[in-house]
Amino acid sequence: MLTHDRRWTILKTMGRNRNGKAKAKIAPPRTRPPGDPLLRALTYENDWVARHFGDLVKNYPQKIVAVVEHAVAGVGATGDEALAVAKEKFPSAIPLLVSVPAEEDMKCVVLFSRTPGSAPTSTR
Amino acid sequence: MRRIVFPYARLGADVHPIVSLGIHLTDAWRTVYAYVDSGAAYTVLSATLAPAGFDYRSGKLTQSRSATGHPLSLFIHDLEIQLGFDRFSAPVAFSPDLHVGFNLLGRKGIFDRYKVEFDDRRRLVSFTPTR
Predict the structure, then answer these.
(1) What is the pTM assigned to this prediction?
(2) Which of A3, A71, B106, B120 has the highest count of CB atoms within 10 angstroms of its CB?
(3) Residue A91 CB contacts under 8 Å (≥ 6 apart), including other chains
(4) Which residues of chain A lie closer than 8 angstroms to B48, CB-CB?
(5) How do residues A25-37 score in pLDDT, each as one tens digit?
């Protein structure tokens, strides 16, 4: 008969919680980009932006950035401005345009979503 | 049609359900990044994303109000959009007054086509086709 502590140690090494269920795993990033430029922006570049969203908010608040090849290829006040810069470097690519919020904008979202009694479907 | 899954966007210790979608405008595709918002009736994009050759003000004008109480002018167009592998038409609104700092992916044309699940534990938002 295993002691509780011993059982917990074994479960931890198996990547399971105290109830024996598998721990939640974060989806691994896609490694092979699709050939279609639109699909590439919607999947491959999307995954990079999701992982680096904090850096974008810190470095480019209230700007629009164009992301190509896992990097910021253009920055501007409008989509056209950001695209024009990115298209000079990557003429055949379809960049992912990201409207980068200011950190305060996202704090507003967090504040509303954590307030007890706030409407569950409206976070802003 | 298959299930489409996006990872949450990370911002410090917080995560947000923000996804990318393609929009067909003036014979070219443009991609945008939008916050999945079940409280928004329409998909709303900032007017700064509209290309110079696209007159976003030609859409159907609707006056609305944001959750923060600010008045919003929405110019609604029926546009072809791409979410993951799927292409379909959906109403998309452009607004010059969208001051929240990000675009919104709202219900009309999206939530009636997909079952949308927010999995905060796995940090994923998924769209399962219902048709």
Answers:
(1) 0.80
(2) B106
(3) none
(4) 64, 77-79, 99
(5) 555 555 667 788 9
